[in-house]
Amino acid sequence: MARPSTGTMVRAVGFWGLAALVFNGIVGAGIFALPGGAARFAGGMAPLVVIAVCLALMPIVLLMARLSALYDETGGPICYARDAFGRSTAFQLGWMQSLSSATSAAANSNLCADYVARLLPAPLAGPLGHALLVLLLLGVVGAIAYAPVARGDAVLRAASLAKLAPLILLLVLAVPAALMAQGAVPHPVEPSLPRAVTLAAFAFVGFEVALTSAGEARSPRRDFPRALLLVFPAVGVLYAALCGAYGLLAFDPAVTDGAPLATLAAHLVGVGGILLIVLAAVASILGNVTTSAMVVPRRLVALTAMGQLPGWFGRIDARGVPTNGTVFTMTVLVALALSGGFAVLAMMTVASRLIVYAVCIAALPRIDRGRGTWTLAVLGGVVCAALVAMSEPASWLAVAVAAFIGVALQALARAAPRPA
């Protein structure tokens, strides 16, 4: 058995804090690349593809909302897997989920440094400058993650407003211009509906991350379903509108655009627009990375409470902060962010999230036998299977390697001497 924690989680997060967690889990770096790729693969159909993907994912969102209404403890999907399939399955799920979150956050930290580097003189934008920017970002994230949850909640809400406000402003400026645009609807440069669908789908994943923090919410059974059902469709409308505006106003078939929203902002308001979008990107990625840095230690606490990790990982101080888990998580984040070798692990984050969805889909009928349960499970299973069919085979090899590492860690934890 794991050693008991020295403190307990503090229930300090209300509805808007949970909504901010969900929002930051979804909206990270994806929106700053989605319009360009969607226009390239689907042309003028890009907004419709985004809306279709949003609607297709709704059964999984509804399923997660239904599960979240049954739990008020830290762990989210880990708890669902534990009650449906046992602690071993729950550990593997939590382990891969934590590793994927850490890898995604590390990759996004590098992307954030890339955005900021565009505003710096060339001599400061080299490899050393890039590494220092990454360390600065993760230093800020670590300080937030090590603070009591109420402070982290306030920072996430501020980050949500800081990235949402520029995107809304961009949309307000773009929609009238798009409606008056005389240009033809763009044609796809590389027609590929599966690639467009995959790109859009992976811009939406991450909504389940916030569910881990149920143990620190005031009313998680009431507020998490409401937060999911408010935020997810709203993000879908935002994504579709930005993709449509970019396609009509700023899409250039001859250019592979790595910063489409900056291009759209420059088209609308000039250089000042680029600065605005860079600041929005920094706020967006900061909120996304901070969400991961706060959620992963909570997953480690949940796994420790099940006796699947050494007790060291589950220590909670008097402020309600999982200190050792936070230190471990930030150490992994820094190592991954500075290694630069994220290609395989980045693909693994996608596959591991599909595994999370699949396990939760299978868990719902075992946990909740209420009306409509099997309908949600079947619809969610169809969507999940379609996304698996579109994913890269190499990502599943990476998942297998990660699962093997998880089994080894679990065996070490079980072999460790148990306290008297």
> In which range does the helix fraction lie?
over 70%
Largest sheet: none
The gyration radius over C-alpha positions equals 21 Å
The stretches of 5 or more residues where confidence is low (pLDDT under 50) are: 1-6
Secondary structure tally, helices = 15
How would you portray this structure in words?
The protein is mainly α. Helix content is 73%, strand content 0%. It has helices spanning 15-26, 34-42, 46-68, 77-85, 87-117, 127-145, 149-180, 193-204, 220-249, 260-269, 271-305, 323-339, 343-367, 373-390, 393-415. Helix 1 crosses helix 7 (149-180), helix 3 (46-68) packs across helix 13 (343-367) and helix 13 (343-367) packs across helix 15. The longest helix is centred in the last third of the chain and has 35 residues, at 271-305. It is globular and about 70 Å long. The protein starts with 14 loop residues before the first helix and ends in a 5-residue tail after the last helix.
How do the helices and strands line up, and which of them pair or pack?
Blueprint: H1 15-26, H2 34-42, H3 46-68, H4 77-85, H5 87-117, H6 127-145, H7 149-180, H8 193-204, H9 220-249, H10 260-269, H11 271-305, H12 323-339, H13 343-367, H14 373-390, H15 393-415
Helix pairs in contact: 1-7, 1-9, 1-11, 2-3, 2-8, 2-9, 3-8, 3-9, 3-13, 3-14, 4-5, 4-13, 5-6, 5-11, 5-12, 5-13, 5-15, 6-11, 6-12, 7-9, 7-11, 9-10, 10-11, 11-12, 13-14, 13-15
Give structural attributes.
single chain; 420 residues; mainly alpha
